[in-house]
Amino acid sequence: MPLQAAPGQANARKGEQTAARILDVALEQFSRLGFERATLNDIAAAAGVSAPTLHYHFVDKADLWQRAMWQLRDVIAREEQLLQVAADATPLALLRMAMRLFIRISWDHPALGRIVMLEGMAGGERLAWLDKHLIGARNRRITAIAAAAIAAGELQDFPPAHIVITLQMAAASLVTLAPLMKTSFGINSQTATTRAAHERMMVDAILAGFMVRPPAKTKAKR
Amino acid sequence: MPLQAAPGQANARKGEQTAARILDVALEQFSRLGFERATLNDIAAAAGVSAPTLHYHFVDKADLWQRAMWQLRDVIAREEQLLQVAADATPLALLRMAMRLFIRISWDHPALGRIVMLEGMAGGERLAWLDKHLIGARNRRITAIAAAAIAAGELQDFPPAHIVITLQMAAASLVTLAPLMKTSFGINSQTATTRAAHERMMVDAILAGFMVRPPAKTKAKR
DNA sequence: CGCGTTCTTGGCTAAATAGTCAGGGAAACT
DNA sequence: AGTTTCCCTGACTATTTAGCCAAGAACGCG
């Protein structure tokens, strides 16, 4: 069940435009509030339509949720593609690349991180859907990369799944918890400088910490 | 607004017992589902009382939420105490200690991590309350420790707040995202072995990664 | 036992929410 | 212009939810 047609089409039927607008709003609201906290009334209002319009374009609240999530499909597919292209690099290089991609996605599409956290801690059918259609394959692929890096002696020997989840959470933490950062520290997570500092930290500290202590030394970067 | 009396008292009035039972259930449900997803009916049912009983013991849903959260006060206070006692250790040692404590709390009181994530990504008045009464002082205290460690040349120079949040998220990730771990990897996060592996990883990889590369070498641990 | 206090409940209200439906307006095609 | 298809809405319903109240049950204490 992909989207009905390519978006942004010049002469897209009018309905598709409003459907797209609704989906944008829905993704935002669902990812911020979760499935039940987000109300159809609010989504409709924010999209500039009235409530029954939602039921014209989408059969259900659940259907709307799935369609909204499906928008993220392209984002993840693109990531997958990039990893595919570089598939002959060393596992460690792949992992570093995956991490950078994850940070980029976290900043450019913060909804994804929020959704994964929200549903990942709640469990249930929506998590099952996400695992099946959005994040499962990707999680397991990156985990396989980590396992390969361990087997190649490039990474310390910890459970690969632990490594991957921890890296993901660490990478997404600043953006996903943006309100907390603001409240507790007065820090605005969305800025480019914050992102740059975080990316540097993830590579130079976190990923470096996972690497097997080098025989001699790493390429001194700073 | 502390709890009405010391719990566990032998001849605690009957009402206090049920109130305590309600608070337990409420903490669980609120932390799993968030404020609005958790319903008073469900909480009452799970606590074995009928709905109006909640309004006898607590004025409001909001009041119930705050009281439920307040239970975590002791947990955090105890942590604070331990850090206080060791206040003369090096900043790095303190930070390592704080991390270990955080991991312990994550496993023993998983509700805390869930709440921080839920409200920390949603923002709003409840996050403000949490910051004021539960996690704000603690966040800023640990951040100060990190800053001291940087100043002492023990830690790489990244924004202390970034370090602290990232460490916390990494420490709590496995337990907080237990359903995701189960769904995507078939891993049960709650087990002691999982926890042990995670703690080892946090110290040997993550925290080690943050440390300033030693002049010669670290005390080879393994 | 008698009586007041503490605790709990069934039965209610008002508000909000997901979802339905018939009708109307706009666009497109003939 | 006429007509068909597409798109949207106002007005409704059923259900769920937080919260209220009066009555009664359980308990403690003289």
SSE layout and pairing:
Two copies of one chain form a homodimer.
Chain A: H1 14-33, H2 40-47, H3 51-57, H4 61-70, H5 72-85, H6 91-108, H7 110-122, H8 125-151, H9 160-176, H10 178-185, H11 192-210
Helix pairs in contact in A: 1-2, 1-4, 1-7, 2-3, 5-8, 6-7, 6-8, 6-9, 6-11, 7-8, 7-9, 8-9, 9-11
Chain A binds a DNA duplex (30 and 30 nucleotides) through helix 1 and helix 3.
Short description:
With about 220 residues, chain A is mainly alpha-helical. Chain A has helices at about 15-35, 40-45, 50-55, 60-70, 70-85, 90-110, 110-120, 125-150, 160-175, 180-185, 190-210.
Q: Which word captures the global form of chain A? A: globular
Rg of chain A, alpha carbons: 20 Å
> What share of the residues of chain A does DSSP label as strand, in percent?
under 5%
Averaging pLDDT over every residue of chain A, what do you get?
90
**SSE string of chain A:** HHHHHHHHHHH
Low-pLDDT stretches of chain A? 1-11, 216-222
